[in-house]
Request: fold
Amino acid sequence: MKKNSCFVFVVLILVKLAVPLQANVKVIDVLKRLDKLQNLGEDITARVDIVQRDVDQGTKVMECIYYGRDISDLFLIVMTKPESEKGNGYLKSGNNFWMYRRNTRTFQHISRDESIAGTDANAGDFEKSKYAEYYESVKDDSGREIVIETMLGKIPVYRIEILAKIPDIDYPRKIIWVRKDNHLPLKEQSFSLSGTLMYSHYFLKYSKVNNKYISIKQLVIDEFEKGNKTLWEIKDISVAELSNNKFTKAYLENLSK
Amino acid sequence: MKLIFLISFRNLIRQKRRNIQLGIAIAFGIVILTIANAFSKGITDNLLNRLIVFTSGHMKISMIESGRVMNPIIRDRAYVLKTIKSTVTGISNIEEDLGAFGRMIGNGKGDYVFLAGVKLNDEFKSYFRALEGSYENYDKGACNPVIISEQKAKYLNVKIGDQVRMRFDNVNGQKQTAIFTVKVIIKSQNIFMDYAVFTPFKNLKQLMGYKKFETAALKIILDDPRTAAEKADLLHKALEPDKACIWSKTDKYSNNLLLVPFIKGVSLNAAGSLIKMPADTEWDSDTKGAVISSVLADKLKLGVGDRIKFKYKQRYFSGLHHADVKISAIALFNKKISPDTVFVSNESFFRIYNYFLPEDKVRLEDYIQADHKDPVWDMIASEWHLLKRTRNTDDFAKKFKDLMRDKKYQPSMDIATMYETASEIIKMEYVFNLVTFLAASVIFFIIMIGVLNSLRMTVRERTREIGTVRSIGMRRSDVKKVFMMETFLLTVLSWLAGLIISLIVMKLLTLIHFSYDNPLNMLMVDRRLYFVPTLWSVFRNLIIVFAFSMATAFFPSSKAASLKPSEALRHTT
Reply:
């Protein structure tokens, strides 16, 4: 009997050790920190290299210049490579998204779900980070937030599971792995409404600019259509102030001439 | 008359060679005209009664929220249906139009498809003939059965019983995925229809996130499609909305509150002296939340930044709905406005109202006693924004472009007809009819010159004969009748021959199967040319050819009849 009790005790200890630790951080604080870290609070100019691997279409290499001002939630993207996309662009001003086509010299109003140059990224991905506004923590049966202390490779992280607070958010459920030490996101999984894993987003490399972290290398894996993936690399970052006319249709049109 | 008929018939046979040649020419014209008419009618039938009915209906009612034109939603389907039934006459059918664009993944291959929700009926089954699998119990056993065209099945590398996955956006713009089982493979109709994949309506409605009292859009199929515009105008008037409001209760206060929405982008200065904002408070189109009266703020002990809580009876859910809205301003209301009125920004109001429609409707005049000409009434948004009727595709496209740009939370209702949603298809039919008419006219003109020449020659050749019959007592009018009857017989016999030949040619043409994809496949049925010869068009062609030939024969016949017998007998060829 005593032997059996010891066995049960050992098993319980092992089970306890196998389950990741429930962390003592609040999800809302992590989300606010995520927003704060990702929103620069100043203007940014950068070159973005995109390598897209598509099962059907093969590998596509693209390059664009990104101008952003997250305080006002403005951005302008102009494609520089490949030749077929050169001069095309995307502009966000206020609540409006436009796509510019150089060949026809026309602006077309698009939704935030519209793909950027046929990549996995959509116009909404370039908006100001609003995790805290749109998401809240998933809670367990006892009403506790699900924040788990675990390891991602060799890095100690918090694994948080979040649900959209409002019904019109594209991915209603996400799981994010953030570093314990500075709350930088390392991995993010986006799920569809039915719970299917759609994308895994890896933040591979960060760079510190003016005391702010910018993820300069990201890998997006399409989990729904296996084999598709996109690698994003952000280069030549500048945080010099940009003039207001940068975020106008006229500027994008001129840039594309 | 019998004698005239016999003489005419004998004359027709006597000059066999010439008349056969002339008859062939007329028959050829009839063949061209009959085939062109039947093809044109086939296109009309295919487009109006099949393609347009399946795609947009003769009339379509949709409601758009937040500029999401791809995901329309009618929140109160019963009300719209009731209004349609009481306003529009000559309805053949009303169908809920539900579909989603997305990417479907088969066995190692993916493609974009349009997933349409269908309620199977005999018309569907006869139009989309099952090649593999069966419509019998197709929706039993599998969780999400799909009907897929043979071309699409081939591309996705799937067979009956295989599973396909699909990702698409639901009604709220959320990413949704589902697994479907291929239950029926149908005959490919045309390149356009090959993009459609069908699944039971109720399954798709659930996957798309529509509640049972909601629908995406309503398609109306009319008995007479040509009356669509006129009926849409009538319906447009009948669907004029009232001002929106939520009549609610709040805790610790005995009076009911009336929440009303501002229109988007309103300036509170427009309210003049009726609503006086504190000097340091700004309110612009981006401001969210509510403006309450200072009296209400005192009674409820609430200030700017607090949330005002309220509850109200819902139209389609049992129990009260509890909601709250942030107070963004406290203002002085004129006596004409009840202090229990709460003015809410467009976005904040419709974010609650759209999802939980209130049951009670109250007279706004009980709360707002200002004259109806007062600008405050213009500041209050209605239940939906009824979009102006448009008459063509360009205006329709512009209307939707503006809607996408505006992104109003307040629903926008649109009533469109096939003349806007499918005007290019209708234009194509008009153009084809016009080209057919012009081509047939040219052919007949050439043929009739032949008839004219032939008759002139006949009159010339038979001048002495005319003189003989006139000498033995035949009247002038009878001479004329003989020639006219001869032409009539030639026309009728040629028409009959032309009709038979055209029916045979049409039958042969329908046997040709166009297996390769091209845009003209859209005009075909089952990838074969589609002809619809009608009785009316057949007789219309007879009337046309008869009118042409009689008009052409009249002058040579009159000339023959007017010949004097003595001169005619002296005539030498």
